Amino acid sequence: MASSVPALRGELAVAPAADRPGLGGRTRRLAGRHPTLALGVVVMALIVLSGVLAPAWWTGDPLEMRPAERLTAPSAQHWFGSDNFGRDVYTRTLYGTRVSLIVGAAVAVISLLIGTTLGLVIGFYRRLDTVMMRVMDGLMAIPAILLALALMALMKTSVRNVIVALVIPEIPRVIRVVRASVLSLREHTMVEGARALGARTPRILVRYILPALMAPLVVQATYICASAILFEAYLSFLGAGTPPHIPSWGNIMAEGKTYVQLAFWIILFPGLFLALTVLAINLIGDGLREILDVRG
Amino acid sequence: MLREILRRLVATIPVMGVVAIAVFALLHVTPGDPAIIIAGDYATADDIAKVRTKLGLDKPFLTQVGIWLGGIARGDLGASIYSGLPVTTLIKQRAEATIALTLLAMLISIAVGVPAGILAAWRRGSWLDRGVMVFAVSGFSMPTFWLGFVLVYVFAISAHWLPVQGFQSFERGLWPFLRHLILPAITLSVVYMALIARMTRASMLGVLSEDYIRTAFAKGLAPRRVLVRHALKNASLPVVTVIGLGFALLIGGAVVTESVFALPGLGRLTVDAIIRRDYPVIQGVILVVSGVYVLINLVVDVLYVVLDPRIKY
């Protein structure tokens, strides 16, 4: 956006700093134009920091039980209160951030990698297209959360299996997006030109189609990440996600479920973190969509 | 028209076929022996063998697929491993709560989401518009079950206005029925409502800049009439689409909402089945829910033709 016109060296040297926004200036301008994106980035940065550096934020041991301090309300000692085993909810919530971030990022990256590869191939080879898209329609008719639940029912609860269970329903959706773009890009004159120059299909896919897909895929990645974080919490809340010995927002809330009337804080704080994280990622996604001019 | 509907109905058969096969294949593509997994951690070799014969897992794969598809064609989804009852019976028992919950949530979402989207588009850039957009983004990001707990805490535990959880059948009277459904339905509707409001606004914005809208206003028509009769009608296709596609969100939300409010619906049935590894029940629920989803989107397709007669299939 900025610095699109190459300037002469001599002019650059004498130009006052104010005329040429540096990285800081450009960031500020971008933030001014997209305040919600900026908000999303700031909140997300705070969440990532709280998760990655969880041990540094005056937390204790997330698994330490203190039976004498069961279900105590938020206080100077337990900022977010304590749960039914006397574990510190603040500590557990911060550690829970890690599971959510790992699951969100892993699901987004893995489903995009698999979905893009398959989508490129399916979109470019006509013969595969009709059959494969029927299959995709069928797979997408199964609500994602039910499919993920069914998969978890057949696997042991672990963070890795949660990622697998959330990637599978996401793949046909990525394929759909990629295929739609490939179908329109295939008719583009640049592809025709490349063909005339003798480029083979794999080269066209990688050098011409893939770069044009980057913008919609980046936006898609944010939405997949946001929904994966939500779904991980759903699965863990329903007892089919992250195992109980790893604190995750979903299973902290699942354990607090029985104590809604007595100790609402066990549910309130992890949920607040969850809502803020998903909101921040969605804000980033909406901002990127605007900047990259992605439709649909 | 009738022929079109019939044609579309036939076109859903291959989609449902894929769903049926996919739901069945799940059992076999996941690593490990399904009989061992379903029998549970403390099963003896004898238990595992029993599960294997009961589910027909000892037969060749294609025979199993044939038995499963044949059963579906006859309306037989097998029997629960846990209770021994036919899966169709279990689904019928639990259908009322889920249907009531999702329908009510759908009604609330449309009744609030569509007008909110229209007003936001009409008063673009105003505080009203911003308010709707903030609601749309935050509502879409809301963890359904957490919102449910917050509402329970505020309206049931603190204020004592509504019951904390539970369900009353419609046969016990309208008020007890609604009283138990208000909080769950509002909880479930928020995500869907946000989606609808957002789509309505975007679609209305596109239409409101058209010449014929300016003409309609210039003729002195009441804004209400212009917005609803002239604009909304032309902006309704994407909205109807999102209502159909968003049904998947609604079902996903229903599973957790039922768990929060202890509603005896299909979601609870599924979650209980997962804890007991009662796989026939899980398969049956997924198949039925996906079928409903396909049917709803079929209705949406038909609505397209009603709303815009230019569309032909």
Describe this structure in words.
The complex is a heterodimer of chains A (296) and B (313). With 296 residues, chain A is mainly alpha-helical. Chain A contains eleven helices and no strands. Chain B is mainly α. In chain B, helix 5 crosses helix 8 (174-208), helix 5 packs parallel to helix 13 (279-307) and helix 12 packs antiparallel against helix 13 (279-307). Chain B starts with a helix and ends in a 6-residue tail after the last helix. The interface between A and B is large, with 45 and 53 residues.
Identify the notable features of this structure and list them briefly.
heterodimer, A: 296 residues, mainly alpha, 11 helices, 0% strand, globular, B: 313 residues
Count of runs of 4 or more consecutive helical residues of chain A: 11
Mean pLDDT over all positions of chain A: 84
Calculate the terminal CA-CA distance of chain B, rounded to whole Å. Answer: 10 Å
What is the overall number of helices of chain B?
13
Q: How far apart are the termini of chain A?
A: 23 Å
* Gross morphology of chain A: globular
What structural class do helix, strand and pairing data of chain B support?
Answer: mainly alpha
Measured by residues with Cβ under 8 Å of the partner chain's Cβ, the largest interface is: A-B, 45 and 53 residues
Task: Sketch the major β-sheet of chain B.
Answer: none
Radius of gyration of chain A (Å): 24 Å
Whole-number average pLDDT of chain B?
A: 86
H/E topology pattern of chain A: HHHHHHHHHHH
Gyration radius of chain B, rounded: 23 Å
Q: How many DSSP E strands of chain A? A: 0
Task: Quote the beta fraction of chain A.
Answer: under 5%
Give helix % range of chain B: over 70%
Helix content of chain A: 55-70%
Shape of chain B: globular
